[in-house]
Write a structure and sequence with these properties.
about 80 residues, alpha+beta, three-stranded antiparallel sheet, 2 helices
């Protein structure tokens, strides 16, 4: 038998006010004649190796608006 145990928490608030989510998972094979085998035992566990961030739609929209100035616009001074 193969078991995949997954725990996830979402819409959590950090001290800096940002939202975040966390997902923890392990996959284990259980056989009758051998000890259980943890298939995810050798996967990296350091935060720097396993974490990533996604940008929300609002953040992407703000970046598009701020960089939408024409490349060859000229300013005139009077």
């Amino acid at each position: 038998m193969v078991f995949n145990v997954t725990i996830s928490l979402g819409d959590l608030k950090a001290k800096n006010g940002k939202n975040y989510a966390i997902l923890l998972a392990d996959t284990v094979i259980v056989r009758t004649n051998t000890p259980p085998e943890n298939l995810t035992a050798k996967i990296p566990r350091k935060y720097e190796e396993i974490s990533y961030a996604l940008q929300g739609d609002e953040e992407v929209e703000e970046k598009k608006k701020s960089t939408s100035a024409p490349a060859n616009s000229k300013q005139t001074s009077k």
